[in-house]
Amino acid sequence: MKKDKTPQQPHEMYEGESKGVYTVNAEGKYELSRTTGWEPETIALSQALEEIDRLTQQALIKVQQGLGSTLEYYMYAQRMDLAMLAVAVGKYQWQVKRHFKPANFEKLSQQQIEEYAAVLGIDAITLKTIPND
Amino acid sequence: MTEKFIHTPSAHCETGTVSNLLRSYGLEISEPMVFGLGSGMTFAYLKQIKINGLPLIAYRMPPKMIIKLLTWRISGLKFHYETFRNADKGMLALDEKLSQGNAVGLQTSVFFLPYFPQAMRFHFNAHNLVAYGKENNEYKISDPVFSHLVTTTADDLQRARFSKGALAPKGLMYYPSEVPESIDYDTVIPKSIRFMAKMNGRWNPVPFSGIKGMRLLAKNIARFDKTDQHYAQLFMGHIVRMQEEIGTGGAGFRFIYAAFLQESANLLDSSFLHERSTEMTHIGDEWRDFAVLCARLSKKRKGQEYSDAAKQLNKIADMELDFYQRLSKFKK
Predict the structure, then answer these.
(1) Residue A113 to residues A38, A71, A123, B85, B150: CA-CA distances in angstroms?
(2) Which residues contact A43 (CB under 8 A, 6 or more apart)?
(3) In chain B, positions 193-232, which contact chain A (CB-CB < 8 Å)?
(4) Which residues of A touch B285 (CB under 8 A)?
(5) Chain A 79-108, CB below 8 Å of chain B: which residues?
């Protein structure tokens, strides 16, 4: 890529940050240029975030209907999925999945709640709170 | 040293960290040189390993592999690695190194680092950065993918260093324990180039990596007309993210490698390597075109077919095969 072709298509998602790409300058020499954004990347990142949002909203509806626990909601809200969460807490996926049922989730010990909360990056009280909106 | 630490912005976290660390310990080495001597460039398509339900597509060697290969090749270069079971002990060990005025490389999660833009914070555990000082419970960080220096609180850094899950960092801390005065480029450059070329080209036996990996992915993409469209679209966006977003220096590390070839050509005074560098730049441009196609398909724009993207990927595989074959017997 030529240096003067370095894409500069900033997007609010990047919060004003730029990143380095290697480009060829006018003398034919490689150097690190800064790019504020590139449309194909922005499309891909927005899509990934929208998908997380979709899954989070689905989980929220389940929580509101009493069909799902807050654990599933916060898992998606904190950008994890079942496979990741299971590895993070050192459990099998079916074990974690059981805790997506409100009845099973309520039976969890404080220690288990805190373990889940820690890997999700929230506190134990939040994890048990039904989000409003 | 704390005051002297020079932050050179980089494209990729691992190679940038290693290059910045080595410079602060007295060995002048650029990021592309670290990447090239570590034979970092490859391609892998691993269907079994899922990230958010999508298969792993990698354009470089697995985390830590580049630095391992680098120390293996450069004689007199050794790194000290340390992981911790106890997070408090891990933080104390870091403080001790910093108080001696040494910069330290750390493996962290991206999710727990608040200085990243919110949209970029995913659970990726193999991020690398340099800590070079501490002041009032705040750590001074040189994060190679940022243009400027950053700081983070002790709590956040601890969470990032001891995050759980796949590739968990376990507080990994590393720094060079032995640094050579110079590098014997005449021997290490040809060696690292041949290794990279053989690993990806015709003699690569692994069916999901190198050229074979690209063809496998192309075959999959060509069949996307018949799969669930929601999944197929997410998959196409995922390719773009793996190739461009995660600090690859553009075109899935192809541009860094071209920069390495150019630097090597100058060091070895080789017109052959200059030509190969230009060739890699063209291949990189083709990868960028591929990303454009994938992004369009992820939005289901009219006039774009999955077969176009598959064709483009196969074209790149052909070009790279030629490239690898030319370099697999490279001698100075």
Answers:
(1) 41, 9, 9, 21, 33
(2) B237, B240, B295, B298, B299
(3) none
(4) 1
(5) 79-81, 83-84, 87-90
> Mean pLDDT over residues B120-147, rounded?
94
- Burial (CB < 10 A; 0-12, 13-18, 19+), residue B135, is exposed
CB contact under 8 A, B237 and A24: no
Residue of A nearest to B113 (CA): A121
Mean pLDDT to the nearest integer, B289-302: 92
Residue of A nearest to B264 (CA): A30
Query: Cβ separation of B255 and A21 shorter than 8 Å?
Result: yes
Task: Report yes or no for ipTM above 0.95.
Answer: no
pLDDT at position B4: 66
Q: What is the pLDDT of residue B1?
A: 43
B281 has a chain A CB within 8 A of its CB: yes
For chain A, give the mean pLDDT.
94
Q: Domains in chain A, ordered, with CATH? A: 3-37 (no CATH), 46-128 (1.10.260.40)
The closest CB to that of B245, out of A22, A44, A51, belongs to A44
pLDDT digits (tens, 9 = 90+) for A44-101: 999 999 999 999 999 999 999 999 999 999 999 999 999 999 999 999 999 999 999 9
Residue ranges covered by each domain of chain B: 13-37+78-178, 185-327
pLDDT in tens, B59-109: 999 888 999 999 999 999 999 999 999 999 999 999 999 999 999 999 999
Q: In B, which residues are within 8 Å of A121 by CB distance?
A: 111-112, 159
Task: Name the residue type at position A60.
Answer: L
Q: What is the DSSP letter of A132?
A: P
What are the b/e assignments for B91-109, b being 16+ CB within 10 Å?
A: bebbeebbeeebbbbbbbb
Provide the whole-model pTM.
0.94
Q: How far apart are the first and last CA of chain A?
A: 46
Residue recorded with tokens 């500069």 = A8
Contacts of B291 in chain A (CB under 8 A): 40-41
Instruction: Tell me the CATH architecture of domain B13-37+78-178.
Output: Alpha-Beta Complex (3.90)
Closest-approach residue (CA) in chain B for A53 = B119
Is the Cβ of A55 closer than 8 Å to some Cβ of chain B? no
Q: Which residue has the tokens 């398909």?
A: B297
Asked whether the CA dihedral B311, B312, B314, B318 is positive or negative, the reply is positive
Q: Do A39 and B295 touch (CB under 8 A)?
A: yes
Contact B24, B8 (CB under 8 A): no
